[in-house]
Amino acid sequence: MTNTLQGTSIIGFSRGSETTATLHGVNPATGETLEPHYYPARKEELAKSLELASKAATPFADTTPKKRASFLNAIATEIENSVDELATRGPLETGLPEARIRGEAGRTCGQLRMFAQLVEEGSWVNARIDHAIPDRTPLPKPDLRCMLRPLGPVAVFCASNFPLAFSTAGGDTASALAAGCPVIVKAHRSHPGMAEIAGRCIQKAAQDTGMPEGTFSLLFGAQDLGQALVEAPVIQAVGFTGSQSGGTALMKIAAARPQPIPVYAEMSSINPVVILPEVLAEKGETLAEGLFGSLVLGVGQFCTNPGLVFLPENGTELFFKKITELVSDGAGATMLNAGTASAYQERVKELSESNGVTTLALADGEGAPAIFSISQEAFTNDASLQEECFGPATLIVTGPIENLPALFAKLEGQLTGTIHATEAELSANTTIVRTLQNRVGRLIFNGFPTGVEVCPSMVHGGPYPATSDGRSTSVGTLAVERFTRTISWQDFPDSALPAELQEANPLNIKRIVNNTHTS
Amino acid sequence: MTNTLQGTSIIGFSRGSETTATLHGVNPATGETLEPHYYPARKEELAKSLELASKAATPFADTTPKKRASFLNAIATEIENSVDELATRGPLETGLPEARIRGEAGRTCGQLRMFAQLVEEGSWVNARIDHAIPDRTPLPKPDLRCMLRPLGPVAVFCASNFPLAFSTAGGDTASALAAGCPVIVKAHRSHPGMAEIAGRCIQKAAQDTGMPEGTFSLLFGAQDLGQALVEAPVIQAVGFTGSQSGGTALMKIAAARPQPIPVYAEMSSINPVVILPEVLAEKGETLAEGLFGSLVLGVGQFCTNPGLVFLPENGTELFFKKITELVSDGAGATMLNAGTASAYQERVKELSESNGVTTLALADGEGAPAIFSISQEAFTNDASLQEECFGPATLIVTGPIENLPALFAKLEGQLTGTIHATEAELSANTTIVRTLQNRVGRLIFNGFPTGVEVCPSMVHGGPYPATSDGRSTSVGTLAVERFTRTISWQDFPDSALPAELQEANPLNIKRIVNNTHTS
Predict the structure, then answer these.
(1) Would you place residue A2 in the very low, low, confident or very high pLDDT band (cuts 50, 70, 90)?
(2) Which of B155, B277, B296, B341 has the greatest number of CB atoms lying within 10 Å of its CB?
(3) Which residue of B has its CA nearest to A129?
(4) Per-residue b/e over B228-259, b at no fewer than 16 CB within 10 Å?
(5) What is the ipTM of this complex?
(6) What is the mean pLDDT of residues B132-151?
């Protein structure tokens, strides 16, 4: 059931028009230009998508949970119906293997259905009720009820490295739609075809389940389009996954608006991994194998790639021997696009030339793994070594583990921090764990940071610059809260309240009533 | 049990030193300078308070809920022990009557005890557990657990209009301490003596309950001190209640830091009140009396003061007659300080000279009530009429109620929106209510906006510029969440987890386990 790709933006229920073609997908393996041409959204098309989103905001916010859940489930079904088309187009645009594209489609549909379930169950709105006490002295207590409500239209920027799960129909879109916010997606130049296929799925699902037209638009365009989108008064929040420079640029635009808005940018992280002496002695080679596996997964193109490893000063020989062998024998692979490949090559070169850095191994070819080592002291003296190297390279810092708390205090914010230790070592080194905790969104014990489970307890976030807003997560059910604010109703008649706050609890959700959790 | 006021900052468990005195309280009723002199914190004193807060951050974050609750309760007890001193000093510094100061002390202690109870009960941390599924295919599911954790040291700015409840030991301080964040307060120049008394209470409570020294500091100083505080890398969030210019200045400083931090500024709101025709016909005079009472409460110096009223075009005679009488007969009163009094006078003059504005009544004297009217059209044409007039003045906009949704779409964000209607009118005018909802943090039916109940369902917040961050509230238990972020633990042994996340649930809190609420 392949449809022809049209190359035009999706503006509500219609399509944009053809203009001067300036965008097209490129096969990163061959450098070939891919058909069709993609037409940047014209100013009037951006304006139309904003106008439609503005009109859709209240009716979409007020859809019943059941209806909004059916919309999210319908998107998942449409993506499943398009999975062969995605699996054909994806590898051409991204260099990612077909199996990865199919796996990511599964994850994307899983996320959409998770949010559908969350919305349908309904308790996520955190409904609270405090009954009136009319005869309280000196003043009567009013009846107060509150719940989370959607913020309004959200701009979502697609990520280069997750053409499905963090792109058009990815986590930001799914969580914003779940919250009840219309979404305008800006496609990533790297995979416009996948954006169009996913966008068509959302458009069809919105029509089939009776959503207001402006609930979703997808725009093709360059950086100026992204800037105009974030500047638009209609937009009330921004979701972004990408580089630190891209994310901080959006933060600046959002903060400079007459009405500043929240930006949820997931940016850069080097995901420190600490290995303590006992566990290193026990299974140094196994740990080297585990690290290598995490390092080269997806050609290192994951936000949670382990780019920094802390080892003790002694007992590191077997580990170094093994990781050096693995990296030396490692093969390169096509990276997501020419820009990513050359940026990786450049950063590897910079690292290898940095003061105090020894190159332990560096395989040949595009996207080839690389491994470096440095002393604690030299690492501390060069803050630039904390810059992300997007790809399969890691820097191993060796030195006394007693110094780690002081070192961690100077680490930038990270998505994850991993500690390998025996249980006895873990208990004996609480200060190391505790200082690491202050710098990360997720702590991992005896594992590796790649692999981000989509579930209620996941935090895929972390202190700046890992994300723009360390209070939030872009993966898991908590992601929905990013696009909401709490509103309070005082002394309203029951019939004028949202169903979630009505006395009889018609939606049968968990609530906090008079400061007591209902069951 | 009056102690002598010293005029020096409180730096952890010690006091600052005397410098060149440049600050002092002023009695707004007489213009008299009040003893003692207040000494601006020196650079080294600011640095010391920051260093102490940084050192205290982890041990204070890791205090048990019981211990942190005992600290908050001890602050309340100390304030109660100092209430006579506060009630003597307060009226001198603020012009507020003694009864108000005593009432506000009660509210302040109530807030502290509410947060103590919240912390001791413990479920507020939103603990979630997802158990491992080791045999899941294709990949095992890890064990994941998450909960809210404190952000780190918080800077709190005292408000002029609530010398206790939104100042040194007020809502921002109480909620930040409840979250587990050390607090550095910048005193307001208007009531340094009350700041010192409250600060001494917190200092003593911290010592008596064994908190780390840097848990609390109180600094006296001018604007440059506030700027230096927000710029300090140690500070991780800001709480502020005050003017829009003050709040936006702090937002800019926070956004320009190498690590941007959240600012929770509660700034300006004119709190629209809508009166629909039927209810106006039924009880126009009573409504005029209610509005007048809300308008002049506390000399109009409340964030929720009703500064804007929408009336239908007809049937307004009795209402206008009554409100005009009441305002004409109304007396002025001493305002908080000379700056507030002259700013109010100036803004009243501006309003009276604005295009299309009719002055209905304007009483004589400082802080005297004022009432103006204008047509919908003239109101729409002059955005400056939405600027807050801090004091007992209100602007009544008359015109067809059919136009209200379009008018509300152009309203700036507000803390509150009030609708007076019969129940039949409310049902018949859902679009008016719904568009108002989009602009406010709290909707009130048949009441008035002043009087902010402190309870779990309260939202004292609202879209920009009512606050800097419309997702949050500065009153009620939800305020604690502003100073937290969620952290996730993956595959940690039970003994290395925080008590809140341990399998046996030793604190007996409500949790979400495997996506199911526990009871």
Answers:
(1) very low
(2) B155
(3) B457
(4) bbbebebbbbbbbbbbbebbbbbbebbbeeee
(5) 0.97
(6) 96
